[in-house]
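TASK: fixed-backbone design
INPUT:
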């Protein structure tokens, strides 16, 4: 499974990229706002940092507006993906943009029916939001399994980006379900590394190494 960072924080992106763990980036206006930086400037900087796809979202409501935004975004880097909302206008834009060679990511997907339509429209990526479904007491991860079955049944080329990820378990469940991609906020990404037994084990090995060395030192001193 590919791991994307759901972030526009260039420090966090550099850190993940240095470990070979950043296969792409997803952003939205809320994520850009968090960084307090100019949209174009930050996307250009990210594009210079990673080779994978970078999803960029505008605020157009009609297909024409979305296409216009996406054509502009595609000039900001070599690997830009146009994020469009799951609406009738959004899917019209998907068709036009994919035909122009600009990949699309249909966002704010909350049902299998929406995913089926996005796949039929030709979206490169489909982003179901699992955390926001969990928030309203629905099973976000069950949606992923359903969408993956639909895509597989008909051999659609669209890749599923598990989005609105809130915990390491969402990432693990996405991988178990066979999702193509999980897009992970930096705080969840950091949590993926940790296990208390790893920390305990490192501490005890370091302690034993020091003890062994000091014991050898004492033997050497007595000789
Ligand atoms: O990329 C969009 C998505 O991941 C948003 O997540 O936490 O705002 O529901 P969240």
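OUTPUT:
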């Amino acid at each position: 499974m590919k791991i994307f960072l759901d972030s526009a924080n260039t420090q966090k992106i550099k850190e993940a990229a240095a470990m070979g763990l950043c296969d792409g980036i997803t952003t939205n206006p809320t994520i850009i706002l968090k960084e307090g930086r100019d949209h174009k400037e930050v996307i250009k900087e990210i594009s210079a940092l990673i080779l994978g796809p970078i999803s960029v979202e505008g605020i157009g409501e009609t297909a024409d507006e979305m296409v216009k935004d996406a054509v502009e975004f595609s000039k900001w880097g070599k690997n830009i993906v146009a994020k469009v909302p799951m609406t009738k206008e959004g899917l019209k834009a998907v068709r036009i943009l994919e035909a122009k060679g600009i990949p699309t990511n249909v966002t704010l997907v909350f049902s299998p029916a929406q995913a089926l339509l996005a796949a039929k429209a030709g979206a490169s990526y489909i982003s179901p939001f699992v955390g926001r479904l969990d928030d309203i007491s629905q099973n976000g991860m069950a949606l992923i399994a359903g969408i993956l079955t639909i895509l597989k049944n008909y051999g659609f080329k669209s890749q599923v980006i598990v989005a609105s990820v809130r915990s390491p378990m969402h990432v693990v469940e996405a991988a178990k379900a066979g999702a193509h991609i999980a897009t992970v906020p930096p705080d969840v990404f950091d949590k993926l590394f940790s296990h208390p037994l790893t920390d305990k084990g490192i501490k005890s090995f370091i302690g034993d190494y020091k003890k062994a060395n000091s014991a050898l030192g004492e033997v050497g001193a007595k000789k």
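COMMENT: Residues 6, 26, 28, 129, 131-132, 163-164, 183 surround SN-glycerol-3-phosphate (CB under 6 Å).
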